[in-house]
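Appendix B. Chain record.
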Amino acid sequence: MVSREHKRAVVLHEKLQLLRSITHSHADNDNAIILDASKYIEDLKDKVDRLNQDIINNPQSSTIQDLLPQVTVETLEKGFLINVYSEKSYPGLLVSVLEAFEELNLTLVEARASCTQNFQLEAISVEGDENGGEIVDAQVVRRTVSKALSHWNTISTDQQDQ
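Structure tokens predicted for this chain:
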């Protein structure tokens, strides 16, 4: 029959080995495992403090990226296929995208939009200026639409804060 103290020692040893593996310790004795775990916890605390400081210094860095819709642009023979997708639909989002098209002087040939639970826009456009205007490429279209969405997000965030 195994004594209670022996069972406790076995359980303690198993827990220390688990702690050793979680903290990536290479220590052999129990005291060193605990010291390594303590250092590991301090390192994690420092990382959390640095991340919190980053959030304080730049509060919109992660939230804007989470809120901004995804924009993809493919070049077609005489225009672009533009897809904009967001997990959530927001008021004014479609208007911002259409204003970006206007800024680029793009003419919509065909568009399909859904603004119910999520936001999805698939648009085929051609360059609207046939009088020798500036020709744009897919990267310019994507950047301009993304910039318009970023501007839209700033305005909508400001309105929500009021």
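Further analysis of this model is presented in Appendix C.
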